[in-house]
């Protein structure tokens, strides 16, 4: 996850934002987050309809959940 966070932080603003999905799709009963990408079910469901700014906002929330902001 941290590697993806660093890669996103290095993307130019006009580049498409990649999905955080890493094919480990299990929702934790205790947290309600995907164990692979740390997204909520709502974030997973909404991803394809988000604009680039919305996708970057999701990545920012993931960074906070992972315990560190992208650098």
What does this structure look like?
- This protein has 71 residues and is mainly alpha-helical.
- The chain has one domain.
- It has three helices and no strands.
- It is globular.
- The relative contact order is 0.22.
- The mean pLDDT is 87.
Amino-to-carboxy terminus distance: 13 Å
How would you state the average pLDDT, rounded? 87
Shape call = globular
Radius of gyration: 12 Å
Report the order of strands and helices.
HHH
Largest sheet: none
**In percent, how much strand structure appears in the residues?**
under 5%
Q: Which spans have pLDDT < 50 for at least 5 consecutive residues?
A: none
| Number of contiguous helices | 3
Tell me the helix content: 40-55%
Strand tally is: 0
Count structural domains: 1
Question: What class do helices, strands and sheet pairing give?
Answer: mainly alpha
InterPro entries: DUF1289
Protein name: DUF1289 domain-containing protein
